[in-house]
């Protein structure tokens, strides 16, 4: 096969996740492990040797993000400028509606494992497969939560070959789309709390994100000290505990 079957692969993936399975999926900012309920999420946690203070990130499209997050109009405009106008991947952390239909599919333990201090994080605009998978998630009410396909503290994986065997063994489906687009950053995606404008993680496309926010919104983000000062292994996990 010389072309990707994005629609078919997303269909197969969402069906596996619906049945309580674990999927390894490609995002432009690296490969991720995901599931839709506490049992697969705990299995991912345990296999990654992930600290209990770490939180799952949600995968969603802009429609879901608009519905679920409760951002101010200005903050929402920033998000849409970044992911629509400038086509950048972005991790958005913000306060949320706990009665959203996708969250109502989760039990209390899974919600607790995926939220902190009244916020939830969502990865947006992470490539064509992410777009199709999150559309199915929204339309069929299958919540998508997870974290990077790595062992905690070891850095983002940008190809399936780099993913630890322990994680490959627990996956019920692995979608291998080769080397991911933003591998040159050697980091996962950038995470920003748009309630507070706190940078939670400096990651892929950070200089572009910073430039957009400065030029069009007069928002100054901290300077990137560089990957040698903040290597991907130190930044790779979604640590909502640091959000004040």
Please give the structural blueprint.
Blueprint: H1 6-18, E1 23-27, E2 30-35, H2 38-48, E3 57-59, H3 62-68, H4 73-85, E4 90-95, H5 108-114, E5 119-124, H6 128-140, E6 145-148, H7 165-170, E7 173-174, E8 191-193, E9 198-201, H8 206-217, H9 232-235
Parallel strand pairs: 1-7, 3-5, 4-8
Antiparallel strand pairs: 1-2, 2-6, 3-6, 4-5, 8-9
Helix pairs in contact: 1-6
Report the CATH superfamily: DHBP synthase
User: Which structural category fits the helices and strands?
Assistant: alpha/beta
CATH architecture group name: Alpha-Beta Complex
Instruction: Calculate the terminal CA-CA distance, rounded to whole Å.
Output: 48 Å
Describe this entry's structure for a reader:
- By secondary structure, this protein is an alpha/beta fold.
- The chain has a single domain, classed as DHBP synthase (Alpha-Beta Complex), CATH 3.90.870.
- 35% of the residues lie in helices and 16% in strands.
- It is built from nine helices and nine strands.
- The protein has helices at residues 6-18, 38-48, 62-68, 73-85, 108-114, 128-140, 165-170, 206-217, 232-235, and strands at residues 23-27, 30-35, 57-59, 90-95, 119-124, 145-148, 173-174, 191-193, 198-201.
- Strands 7-1-2-6-3-5-4-8-9 form a nine-stranded mixed sheet, with helices on both faces.
- Helix 1 packs across helix 6.
- The protein is globular.
Keyphrases for this structure?
244 residues; alpha/beta; nine-stranded mixed β-sheet; globular; disordered C terminus
